[in-house]
Amino acid sequence: ARKKKVRITQTFAACIALIVLLAVGITVNGRVSGEGVFGNTGNAAEGHVSGSTVTVEQEDVTDESDASEEDVSDGSEAPAVSFSSNLPEVSSASDKEDTDNDGGKSDREPMFDAKLDVPVTTGSRTAEDGVQVGIAWTGNMVSSDKIPSIELLFYQAIVQAGAEPVFLDKASDEASAAAVLDGIDCLVVCGGSDIDPAIYGETAGEFFEGPAFTERDISDFWVLDVAIRSDIPTLSVCRGMQMLNVVCGGSLVQDIPSEIGTSVLHRESDGDDFVSHNITIRQEGLLWSLEMMGSKSVNSFHHQCVKELGKGLTVDATADDGVVEAIEMDGKRFMLGLQYHPERALADGETSYLTYFQALINAAA
Q1: Has residue 240 been placed in a domain?
Q2: Can 48 be counted among the known catalytic residues?
Q3: Which residue among the candidates 186, 238, 248, 305 is catalytic per the annotation?
Q4: 25 or 66, which is more confident?
Q5: What domain range is 46 assigned to?
Q6: Helix-helix angle 239-247:214-230, to 10 degrees
Q7: Pairing between strand 313-319 and 324-329?
Q8: Does some domain include residue 181?
Q9: So what's the pLDDT on residue 291?
Q10: pLDDT tens profile 51-63
Q11: DSSP letter at 267?
Q12: Active-site residue 259, yes or no?
C-alpha cells in the first residue's frame, strides 16, 4: 500500500511538472510571437525573452509598407533626375510672347540646401524686420573657416549694405520657387558653373565645363522666372546674369576664347584666377545711374557670355571685344545682371561697389 501511494504521489508530481512546463511554453510562445519585441514587422527571426534569445521559425509575412521599404533597399540606385523632363520650352527671343509687364502667367514651361557656418534667417517676419535679401540656392557645402565662398561674400556685402541676408532653399518648379521667395524683398543670384546648353536649345560643345549641375540649373531658372513676373528687385552676377538672359529666351557663347578670341582675357588662361579689363557703360541705363561714368575697370572670371540677347533685356555695358558685361530688364524696379563680381571687389576693399547692393535694397523699400 505504501509503494502504491508513493507511485501515485510520483505520478501526481509528474503531472504537475508537465502542466507547469506546458504553461511556461505557452507563455514564451505568446511573448515571442505576439508582443512588441518584434512589433508588427512579421519577419524578425529572433528576440529577447526573459534575458534569453529565443529563435523562432515562421512564415515570411510582410505588409505593404515592408514591401515598399524592401524595394528601395535592394541595392539598386535611385533614378537620376531627368533633365529633359524638367527642361523649359524656351522659344527664341524673337518670337517669345512678351509677358514681362502684364503680371500674367508666362507661356514658358520652365523646367539643394546650402549649409553655411553663418546665421541663417528662419521663421516668420515681423513689422520690425528690415529688408530681406534672398541668396539663391547654389548647392555648395562650404565653411567659414575656408577661403570665402561667393555665397559668403554676398552675405557680407548684404549685411554691409544694411539688409538681412537669407539663404534660400532649392526650387524645383514654379510653385516651390514662389514658396522660397515668399516674404523675400529682393534677390541675389550668384555665379557658378556652366549652364547646360540644352536649356537654350544647344548641345554641349568641346569647351563646355561639365558635368552639368541640373538641380541648380532648374532652381535658378524657376527662381528668376518668378522674380521677373513678381517684379522682385534682383541682382544677378556672372552665371546669374547668363541665366537671366536664358530665362528671357536668350542664348550663350559657350567659350569666349574659341568663339570670340583672346584680345581681351576674361579669366586667366589656365582658368584659375581673376583678371581685370575695361568696360564701356551705356549712358542713361541703370548701370550708368549707379556708376555715373562711361567706362571703368572691372574684375573678371568667366569663359561664357551672352550671345543672343533675351527679350525685354537691354545691354548696359560691353568689354572692348564686344562681350556683354551688364544687362538690365526694362520696366522693372531693379533687374540688373553683371558679368563681373561686385561682391569680390567689395571684399577686396573697393568700397564703391557697395552702391550696387544699396541700390538693390533701396529698390525694395
Answers
A1: yes
A2: no
A3: 238
A4: 25
A5: 1-34+42-57
A6: 60
A7: antiparallel
A8: yes
A9: 78
A10: 333 333 334 433 4
A11: S
A12: no
